[in-house]
Amino acid sequence: MSMVSEFLGQLSLNIGAHEPTFPTVVPAVDFDPDRDAARIETAIKTKGVDEQTIIDVLTKRTYSQRRDIAFAYERRAKKDMISALKGALSGSVETVILGLMKSTAQYDASEIRGSIKGLGTDEETLIEILCSRSNDELVEIKKVYKELFKKELDKDVAGDTSGNFAKLLLALVQTKRAEPSSIVDYEKIDEDARALYDAGVKIRGTDVPTWISIMSERSVPHLQKVFQRYKSYSPYDMQESIQKEVKGDLQRSFLVLVQCFENKQLYFANRLNEAMKSKGAKEKIVTRIIVSRCEVDLKKICSEFKTNYGQSLQKTILEHTKGDYQKALLGLCGPEQ
Predict the structure, then answer these.
(1) pLDDT tens, position by position, 36-93
(2) Which of 22, 126, 148, 158 sits 20 to 30 Å CA-CA off 142?
(3) How much is the average pLDDT of 265-270?
């Protein structure tokens, strides 16, 4: 029972209360967890495993529905469904399916944990998740991280990173970002734009703490206007300024933040394109984005992808992946719009 209760114990669907969602995975109509559990049990028992049925069922149900299926399965088979899936599947498709047995916040928390425990840190994963998630998502991730790993996220991040990079990530994890306001404060916009310029391009060196506080505490709509205004002070836009002023992981983090403030779904579309077209397709990145965003904004990511690359994400997945892994990803993306 341990794994089911660990991951399915609490149902957290509090995704960005203030951000509209554009999911590709929506609740199945006429949902019957007992019927689905029976289909999965049969698929697992079939000689050679019927992966197609497992993919068809689990990629077309939301997390809360999958959770109901797992409980129904346990009642039927007197076995834990996650362990059964683990035994029946392997490779990339196993990673996708097991990822789907976690809520979005549990999945993100597990990915963060995986990136910082053990030897060396996977900074790329850490940056992608912490710099792209909304304040509400981060609040939920912190809560779930503590429930799953009995550790505080900020302490783990601090223990694994250093310098200004650590300070920026910790500022984001403290979730002090202001809520969007219906009142546009032009004075504050101008003040922040000026402060970003004065702390960077204008001077020798960079006053990084000023950049961190503005970018981790202001609301997203406010920052979008700040970056517009910034161009009237600086000969470079915000992304160019970041590239000139800071280096390494700090630069990468600020760039992801700014790209997400400007158009988060385009950021993910670019990541997917890069990951699929790079040598030795970076499956880990493709899996993480599609699994973690399918109930959040994957529909919008698909449309940004098509607009920018002239072909659909689905077609690109067909060209760059294969087998059951490909079928699972396509199941989560849904039909081309």
Answers:
(1) 999 999 999 999 999 999 999 999 999 999 999 999 999 999 999 999 999 999 999 9
(2) 22
(3) 98
Q: Are 168 and 250 in contact (CB under 8 A)?
A: yes
Beta carbons of 97 and 58 less than 8 angstroms apart: yes
CA gap 51, 154 in Å, rounded: 39
CATH tag for 104-174 (out of 1.10.220.10, 2.30.42.10, 3.40.47.10, 1.25.40.880)? 1.10.220.10
266 and 308 Cβ atoms separated by less than 8 Å: yes
Residue-wise pLDDT tens digits, 217-255: 999 999 999 999 999 999 999 999 999 999 999 999 999
Q: Which structure tokens are listed for 109?
A: 């928390």
What's the CATH number for 33-89? 1.10.220.10
Distances (CA, A) of 322 to 92, 144, 166, 177, 225: 10, 33, 38, 41, 43
What is the fold, at CATH topology level, of the domain defined by 186-262?
Annexin V; domain 1 (1.10.220)
pLDDT at position 281: 58
Find the helix or strand (DSSP H, E) in which 319 lies: helix 313-320
* Alpha carbon distance, N-terminus to C-terminus of the chain: 40
Token readout for 90 is 């392997």
Q: What is the pLDDT of residues 120-129, one digit of tens each?
A: 889 999 999 9
